[in-house]
Target: Protein GrpE
Amino acid sequence: MTEEPTEQNEVQRGTPGSEPEAVSSDLEELRKAYDDLNDRFLRLAADFDNYQRRMARELDTRTTFAIEAFAAEILDVLDNFERAEAADDASLREGLEQIKKLFTAILQRHEIVPIDCVGRPFDPQGHEAVAYVPADAPEGTVIDEVIRGYCMKDKVIRCAKVVVSRGKEE
Model:
Protein backbone atom coordinates (compact mmCIF):
# COMPACT_ATOMS: atom_id res chain seq x y z
CA MET A 1 0.00 0.00 0.00
CA THR A 2 1.62 3.16 -1.17
CA GLU A 3 0.54 6.59 -0.34
CA GLU A 4 -0.42 8.84 -3.15
CA PRO A 5 1.12 12.25 -2.94
CA THR A 6 -1.46 14.81 -1.93
CA GLU A 7 -1.16 18.47 -1.21
CA GLN A 8 -1.62 17.83 2.51
CA ASN A 9 1.16 15.24 2.63
CA GLU A 10 3.43 17.64 0.81
CA VAL A 11 2.75 20.35 3.36
CA GLN A 12 3.45 17.97 6.21
CA ARG A 13 6.64 16.69 4.70
CA GLY A 14 7.62 20.05 3.33
CA THR A 15 9.70 20.45 0.29
CA PRO A 16 13.27 19.33 0.35
CA GLY A 17 15.55 22.13 1.55
CA SER A 18 12.77 24.38 2.82
CA GLU A 19 12.28 22.56 6.10
CA PRO A 20 15.36 23.91 7.92
CA GLU A 21 14.55 27.47 6.84
CA ALA A 22 10.94 27.22 8.06
CA VAL A 23 12.00 25.66 11.35
CA SER A 24 14.73 28.22 11.77
CA SER A 25 12.30 31.04 11.04
CA ASP A 26 9.70 29.64 13.46
CA LEU A 27 12.36 29.09 16.11
CA GLU A 28 13.58 32.67 15.72
CA GLU A 29 10.00 34.00 16.07
CA LEU A 30 9.44 31.88 19.18
CA ARG A 31 12.76 32.99 20.66
CA LYS A 32 11.83 36.64 20.01
CA ALA A 33 8.37 36.15 21.57
CA TYR A 34 10.00 34.44 24.57
CA ASP A 35 12.49 37.28 25.00
CA ASP A 36 9.69 39.86 24.79
CA LEU A 37 7.57 38.02 27.37
CA ASN A 38 10.56 37.48 29.64
CA ASP A 39 11.46 41.18 29.42
CA ARG A 40 7.85 42.15 30.24
CA PHE A 41 7.86 39.72 33.17
CA LEU A 42 11.11 41.12 34.58
CA ARG A 43 9.85 44.69 34.25
CA LEU A 44 6.56 43.77 35.92
CA ALA A 45 8.39 42.01 38.77
CA ALA A 46 10.63 45.07 39.27
CA ASP A 47 7.59 47.38 39.21
CA PHE A 48 5.86 45.21 41.81
CA ASP A 49 8.95 45.22 44.07
CA ASN A 50 9.12 49.02 43.79
CA TYR A 51 5.38 49.24 44.58
CA GLN A 52 5.80 47.09 47.71
CA ARG A 53 8.72 49.21 48.96
CA ARG A 54 6.81 52.44 48.25
CA MET A 55 3.70 51.17 50.10
CA ALA A 56 5.81 50.07 53.09
CA ARG A 57 7.44 53.52 53.27
CA GLU A 58 4.05 55.24 52.93
CA LEU A 59 2.53 53.08 55.69
CA ASP A 60 5.50 53.82 57.93
CA THR A 61 5.14 57.56 57.25
CA ARG A 62 1.39 57.51 57.96
CA THR A 63 1.93 55.61 61.20
CA THR A 64 4.63 58.01 62.31
CA PHE A 65 2.45 61.07 61.61
CA ALA A 66 -0.54 59.50 63.39
CA ILE A 67 1.54 58.78 66.49
CA GLU A 68 3.07 62.26 66.31
CA ALA A 69 -0.36 63.94 66.18
CA PHE A 70 -1.63 61.85 69.09
CA ALA A 71 1.52 62.59 71.10
CA ALA A 72 1.10 66.33 70.52
CA GLU A 73 -2.41 66.12 72.01
CA ILE A 74 -1.14 64.12 75.00
CA LEU A 75 1.56 66.74 75.62
CA ASP A 76 -1.26 69.20 76.40
CA VAL A 77 -2.25 66.90 79.23
CA LEU A 78 1.35 66.76 80.48
CA ASP A 79 1.53 70.59 80.44
CA ASN A 80 -1.60 70.73 82.58
CA PHE A 81 -0.16 68.20 85.04
CA GLU A 82 2.92 70.38 85.42
CA ARG A 83 0.74 73.43 86.08
CA ALA A 84 -1.32 71.48 88.63
CA GLU A 85 1.87 70.34 90.31
CA ALA A 86 2.90 73.98 90.82
CA ALA A 87 -0.56 75.02 92.09
CA ASP A 88 -1.58 75.37 95.74
CA ASP A 89 -3.64 72.66 97.42
CA ALA A 90 -6.99 74.44 96.95
CA SER A 91 -6.80 74.61 93.18
CA LEU A 92 -5.04 71.24 92.79
CA ARG A 93 -8.27 69.22 92.81
CA GLU A 94 -9.89 71.58 90.29
CA GLY A 95 -6.80 71.33 88.07
CA LEU A 96 -6.86 67.53 88.18
CA GLU A 97 -10.54 67.52 87.19
CA GLN A 98 -9.75 69.77 84.21
CA ILE A 99 -6.90 67.49 83.18
CA LYS A 100 -9.20 64.46 83.34
CA LYS A 101 -11.78 66.25 81.15
CA LEU A 102 -9.10 67.21 78.62
CA PHE A 103 -7.69 63.69 78.54
CA THR A 104 -11.17 62.15 78.14
CA ALA A 105 -11.96 64.57 75.28
CA ILE A 106 -8.74 63.59 73.48
CA LEU A 107 -9.58 59.89 73.81
CA GLN A 108 -13.13 60.45 72.56
CA ARG A 109 -11.82 62.38 69.54
CA HIS A 110 -9.88 59.26 68.65
CA GLU A 111 -12.96 57.08 69.29
CA ILE A 112 -11.46 55.51 72.40
CA VAL A 113 -14.27 54.96 74.90
CA PRO A 114 -14.50 53.15 78.25
CA ILE A 115 -16.24 49.79 78.48
CA ASP A 116 -19.36 50.02 80.64
CA CYS A 117 -19.43 46.87 82.77
CA VAL A 118 -20.77 47.24 86.34
CA GLY A 119 -24.19 45.61 86.70
CA ARG A 120 -23.88 43.82 83.34
CA PRO A 121 -23.31 40.13 82.64
CA PHE A 122 -19.68 39.03 82.52
CA ASP A 123 -18.38 39.07 78.92
CA PRO A 124 -15.00 37.40 78.33
CA GLN A 125 -14.55 39.49 75.16
CA GLY A 126 -14.30 42.74 77.15
CA HIS A 127 -13.86 41.65 80.77
CA GLU A 128 -11.14 39.89 82.70
CA ALA A 129 -12.33 38.42 85.99
CA VAL A 130 -9.93 39.05 88.87
CA ALA A 131 -12.27 37.78 91.60
CA TYR A 132 -15.39 35.61 91.89
CA VAL A 133 -17.17 36.49 95.13
CA PRO A 134 -20.55 35.86 96.77
CA ALA A 135 -22.92 38.83 96.35
CA ASP A 136 -26.59 39.77 96.20
CA ALA A 137 -26.37 40.19 92.42
CA PRO A 138 -27.20 37.21 90.17
CA GLU A 139 -24.36 34.83 89.36
CA GLY A 140 -22.16 36.01 86.47
CA THR A 141 -22.93 39.71 86.98
CA VAL A 142 -20.07 42.20 87.18
CA ILE A 143 -20.27 43.86 90.63
CA ASP A 144 -17.08 45.93 90.67
CA GLU A 145 -14.59 47.38 88.22
CA VAL A 146 -10.97 47.20 89.40
CA ILE A 147 -9.43 48.65 86.21
CA ARG A 148 -11.48 50.25 83.44
CA GLY A 149 -11.36 48.70 79.98
CA TYR A 150 -11.40 50.62 76.68
CA CYS A 151 -12.59 50.10 73.11
CA MET A 152 -11.41 51.86 69.97
CA LYS A 153 -13.93 51.80 67.12
CA ASP A 154 -15.73 48.76 68.59
CA LYS A 155 -12.47 46.84 69.13
CA VAL A 156 -11.38 46.10 72.69
CA ILE A 157 -7.91 47.57 73.22
CA ARG A 158 -7.81 46.80 76.95
CA CYS A 159 -10.11 44.45 78.84
CA ALA A 160 -11.73 45.70 82.03
CA LYS A 161 -10.51 43.89 85.16
CA VAL A 162 -13.68 43.09 87.11
CA VAL A 163 -15.10 41.33 90.14
CA VAL A 164 -17.89 38.88 89.25
CA SER A 165 -20.77 37.76 91.47
CA ARG A 166 -20.98 34.13 92.48
CA GLY A 167 -24.57 34.67 93.64
CA LYS A 168 -25.97 34.47 97.16
CA GLU A 169 -24.38 31.96 99.50
CA GLU A 170 -26.76 29.97 101.58
The mean pLDDT is 85. The domain at 113-170 is CATH 2.30.22.10 (Nucleotide Exchange Factor Grpe; Chain A, domain 2). Helices lie at 7-13, 19-86, 89-109. The chain is about 55% helix and 20% strand.
